[in-house]
């Protein structure tokens, strides 16, 4: 495994007061030294001379996605969630083969790696394919098998994923993936929570994405949302990820304080599907852990966390008529540390000695960074930056993206295979 020295770079992570100019040494997949600029010996290392014009951020974490849906981009556009799923997406998904899911996921990984994403939480099916392609590329992935209905076969597949992949190479983790309260009966949800506790793994589910779902909980399941989470044991698992959480009421949030919950904010998917805008400021006030996600490429339509950071800040300022309501630093923590923790990855999401070298190298020598300093770096990143500033992306000390190339995989082959899969699916 190579040793890398980022010489004279800026670094920033969401927990730092301000940016810092320094040398960063990466050895054996971890950040081994952070010292004053131009002080670490550059012998016997691969040198990345940053010359005070680059920034290292922790790798972005896409907290909720369905990677292989990159094959379905553009399908059922501009349709509300339930008819989009039932009439447009699910019939096509029924034709997905393991091979298509492999190439669709690979396609999504090209996009994510080039945007600086190093880790993603994926809920889909044929998850062995997702595990294999993530390992082949060297990306971190939290796998969950989407569970629909009360189906032991799907649950067994999810449990087998734990046996086969959980912890593999420090890149993979596994969660149980009950799809949503409206697709999984309540007693089945409860059993899944019990299994999570028994097997010491997290849960990844959709929750309160639309207003319709809130009404469904009330009218069909006779529960308020937090009561549902309590009754089904979702508050008792080692970790529970709720994708969306758009329709929580502010007064319900204190009940989730100090809980095992991470809510994944998917602002662009929620806007595009017209689902609504989540009460993010109140969630942060209550100390609830919130991360960021893109959801699938068919509802976003990008897999770019920069876009989620920018919109995740701007929409709340806009609807609350208050520019102070959310800070760039908080958004950066959501995009990195909170995502990693929610997905069960340790020592991931900060730039600290002994933490995993999951890093994004950003070129600051661009017109829109003119005038930044260590204090303003976070706001430049969130409000002026974009994924086109990403020069390279590293996971556990290995490049997954470097200057337009993908050192660990064959980009042309992925594009060719994904195009064939797409054609076979949608014709
Ligand atoms: N249908 C699968 C299991 C479901 S995987 C997860 C599912 O979530 C669906 N999905 C994608 N985006 C959303 C969303 O925003 N809300 C709810 N479901 C979604 C996605 O299309 C996929 O079917 C089977 O055969 O067993
Ligand atoms: Zn989703």
From TrEMBL:
Residues reported in the UniProt entry to bind substrate: 93, 145, 179, 209, 295
Molecular functions (GO terms): 5'-methylthioadenosine deaminase activity; metal ion binding; S-adenosylhomocysteine deaminase activity
Organism annotation: Aminobacterium colombiense (strain DSM 12261 / ALA-1)
Protein's UniProt name: 5-methylthioadenosine/S-adenosylhomocysteine deaminase
The organism's place on the tree of life at top rank: Bacteria
Functional description taken from the UniProt entry: Catalyzes the deamination of 5-methylthioadenosine and S-adenosyl-L-homocysteine into 5-methylthioinosine and S-inosyl-L-homocysteine, respectively. Is also able to deaminate adenosine.
Pfam families named in the record: Amidohydro_1
UniProtKB keywords: Hydrolase, Metal-binding, Zinc
Gene3D superfamilies per record: Metal-dependent hydrolases, Urease, subunit C, domain 1
Enzyme nomenclature, EC number: 3.5.4.28, 3.5.4.31
Family (UniProt): Belongs to the metallo-dependent hydrolases superfamily. MTA/SAH deaminase family.
Required co-factors: Zn(2+)
Entry note: cofactor: Binds 1 zinc ion per subunit.
Domain Amidohydrolase-related, residue spans: 56-400
Catalytic activity: S-adenosyl-L-homocysteine + H2O + H(+) = S-inosyl-L-homocysteine + NH4(+); S-methyl-5'-thioadenosine + H2O + H(+) = S-methyl-5'-thioinosine + NH4(+)
Annotated binding of Zn(2+), by residue: 64, 66, 206, 295
């Amino acid at each position: 495994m190579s040793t890398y020295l980022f010489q004279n770079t800026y670094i920033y992570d969401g927990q730092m007061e301000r940016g810092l100019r320094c040398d960063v040494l990466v050895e054996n997949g971890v950040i081994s030294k952070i010292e004053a600029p131009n002080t670490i010996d550059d012998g016997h290392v691969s040198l990345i001379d940053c010359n005070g014009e680059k920034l290292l951020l922790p790798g972005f974490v896409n907290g909720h996605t369905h990677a292989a849906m990159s094959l379905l981009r553009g399908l059922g556009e501009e349709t509300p969630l339930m008819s989009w799923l039932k009439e447009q997406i699910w019939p096509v998904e029924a034709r997905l083969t393991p091979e298509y899911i492999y190439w669709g996921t690979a396609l999504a990984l090209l996009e994510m790696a080039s945007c600086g994403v190093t880790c993603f939480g994926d809920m889909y099916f044929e998850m062995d394919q997702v595990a294999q392609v993530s390992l082949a590329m060297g990306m971190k992935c939290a796998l969950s098998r989407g569970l629909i209905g009360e189906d032991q076969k799907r649950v067994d597949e999810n449990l087998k994923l734990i046996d086969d992949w959980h912890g593999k190479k420090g890149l993979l983790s596994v969660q149980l993936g009950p799809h949503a309260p409206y697709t999984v009966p309540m007693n089945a949800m409860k059993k899944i929570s019990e299994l999570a506790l028994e097997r010491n793994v997290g849960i990844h589910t959709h929750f309160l994405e639309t207003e319709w779902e809130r009404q469904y909980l009330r009218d069909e399941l006779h529960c308020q949302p937090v009561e549902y989470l309590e009754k089904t044991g979702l508050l008792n698992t080692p970790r529970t990820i709720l994708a969306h959480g758009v329709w929580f009421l502010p007064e319900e949030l204190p009940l989730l304080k100090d809980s095992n919950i991470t809510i994944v904010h998917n602002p662009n998917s929620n806007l595009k599907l017209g689902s609504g805008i989540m009460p993010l400021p109140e969630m942060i006030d209550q100390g609830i852990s919130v991360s960021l996600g893109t959801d699938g490429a068919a509802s976003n339509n990008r897999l770019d966390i920069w876009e989620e950071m920018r919109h995740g800040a701007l929409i709340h300022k806009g609807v609350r008529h208050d520019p102070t309501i959310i800070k760039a630093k908080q958004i950066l923590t959501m995009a990195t540390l909170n995502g990693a923790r929610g997905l069960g990855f340790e020592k991931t999401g900060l730039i600290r000695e002994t933490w995993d070298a999951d890093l994004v190298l950003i070129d600051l020598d661009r017109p829109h960074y003119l005038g930044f300093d260590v204090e303003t770096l976070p706001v430049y990143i969130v409000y002026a930056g974009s994924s086109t500033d990403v020069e390279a992306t590293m996971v556990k000390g290995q490049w997954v993206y470097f200057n337009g190339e993908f050192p660990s995989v064959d980009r042309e082959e992925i594009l060719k295979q994904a195009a064939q899969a797409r054609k076979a699916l949608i014709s």
